[in-house]
Amino acid sequence: MAYKETRIMNNWKKTAAAISAAAMLMSMFGCSHKDATIDGDSSSQANTEEEEEILCETIAPPTDVKLSETTKSLIESAKGTDIELYYFFTMASFTAAPDFDPEIASDVPMYNSLYYNLLELSEMDGVNFVEAGDPAYSDYTEQLDPTGMMGIAGGDLVVKCGDNVKRIKATQFFTYNEDGSVEYNGENLIAGAISTCLNGLPTVYFIYGHGEKWMDGSYVHYGDVLEGGGYRVDALKLSETKEIPDDAAVVCIAAPQSDISKEESDIILDYMHSGGAVSMILPPCSANASFENIDGILNEYGIAMDYDMIAAEDEEYQLTDNKESLSRYYFKADFPEGNDDFWINENVNALLESDYGYVAGISETRSFTVSDSAADTVIMPVVVTGDDSSSFVCEPVGGSNDDKKYAETRSGSDLDFAVCAKNTSNGSKLFAIGSDDMISDGFYNASLSAIRMLTVYSNAWLYDPDIDMGIPALRVR
Asked: What span, in angstroms and rounded, lies between the C-alpha atoms of 91 and 112?
């Protein structure tokens, strides 16, 4: 996988803002990675020692940037548990930053907020604060992120409690609003990350027992990406447990080769009726039977699984497969604009419009039929055929004879390949997609780059791994 893609994969939310701020950290401090990591080399600093001393004396921390009681109480309650904070930069670089200026036209100089929060945290009992330096050269990078999927970058803060590790990206600390104002969100993020690491990471459970795929050699890389994004990954055999664990953030059914049981379906629906989140990754399957119980879950959200595989007859829509040949089953798709309820495509379209070379395609996918019949449910197809569906053919695959006949009637229709649905009454969420090539090990095909990112982002849409501690943002500019 390309370096740029690995890094962007970890920008779970608001990627458009993250892309525009890709070099924010270095520019905001007015120094390079190299400058930030030369310990004790005064030539790398923008100010002399005397100037830094004057700055530090002049800008004593205002009340606004002292840690809240929420954060203090959280750390106090964790006594006996080591809270480790690894800051991949140097604190001295703050005082060298152009914006670290007492004359700035603001009550709180731009970066004082982050600096003083980190400084206060470093002095608290029970907190081990480490200036980890440049992640490209730091020994801590591999220790905290052995797979590399967390994508630690300069200016990131990594929180560790026991075996739980969570990254806060440098680009998350500040929100740049359209009116030109800037808000500091750092303390809320830091406290949330500490709480998550103390109490356990949210878990994505992959159901098995029906021929499904998961991290056993099929989705190893995808599992690493999820773990890098702040989740724990585990397997779950519902026929034995008879329940979904309390720490479940997302329950995933991936590429089943047979239907789940009615009992398992009821367990999943009970979980969803309590506000749970389910991801269904459902590539075409040759089993000549309807998956009535999986369909039953989908139907509650106004979605029906079609028993087909889609092919594009017109070469204009075809994309290259893993053998670098144009394929009828690899084709261009459209990612409709989202909204506040369904923000996934905001991220994907930002990538498609960037210079990173993402391609809007999908491969070997089934379609879904969507209706507005489900009560208290809002639905949005997030991957579709686009403006011209006439050259798309639905080839029957699996299902009953009636399923096959219905599939044949769908050729040339507007088709949906991935759908998000949300119940407005109980807050439950469902994501369904008709392919798994994009997350399967060995399918790192440029044609699938955007759909791979959409599948990754779907987890954050289903369950936000960042806990909101209710600490208000501080306007700093």
From this structure: 11
DSSP notation for 5-30: HHHHTT--S-HHHHHHTTTHHHHHHT
Helix (H) or strand (E) holding 50: helix 49-58
Instruction: Compute the average pLDDT of residues 405-418.
Output: 95
Q: 421 - beta bridge partners?
A: 379, 430
* Tens-place pLDDT, residues 334-361: 999 988 889 999 989 999 999 889 999 9
Residue 155: which residues within 8 A CB-CB, separation 6 or more?
25, 88, 89, 170
Residue 41 contacts by C-beta under 8 Å, 6 or more apart in sequence? Answer: none
pLDDT per position as a tens digit, 80-96: 899 999 999 988 877 66
Q: What is the DSSP string of 387-443?
A: S--TTEEEEE-SS-HHHHHHHHTTTTS--EEEEEEEETTT--EEEEES--GGGSTT-
Rg (CA), the chain: 24
Please state, in angstroms and rounded to a whole number, the distance separating the CA atoms of residues 259 and 100: 60
Separation of alpha carbons 332 and 466, rounded Å: 33
Helix (H) / strand (E) element for 235: namely strand 232-236
| Cα–Cα nearest to 461, from 334, 347, 335 | 347
What is the Cα–Cα distance from 132 to 301, expressed in whole angstroms? 47
Residue 23 has pLDDT above 70, yes or no: no
**Residue 399 identity (one-letter amino acid):** G
Separation CA 228–CA 150 (nearest Å): 4
Amino acid at 305: M
Q: Over 60: is that where the pLDDT of 320 sits?
A: yes
**pTM score, whole prediction:** 0.82
Question: DSSP assignment, residue 473?
Answer: P
Average per-residue pLDDT for the chain: 85
Q: Which residue has the higher pLDDT, 25 or 236?
A: 236
Number of neighbouring beta carbons within 10 Å of residue 2? 12
Alpha-carbon distances, residue 94 vs 9, 118, 123, 235 (angstroms):
28, 11, 17, 44
pLDDT of residue 187: 96
- What are the angstrom distances between the C-alpha of 411 and each of 309, 334, 387? 11, 17, 15
> How does DSSP classify residue 171?
G
Over residues 265-295, the pLDDT tens digits come to 999 999 999 999 999 999 999 999 999 999 9
Domain ranges of the chain: 3-200, 203-462
The CATH number given to 203-462 is 3.40.50
* Tokens read off for 104: 């700035």
Q: Confirm if 78 and 197 have CB atoms less than 8 A apart.
A: no
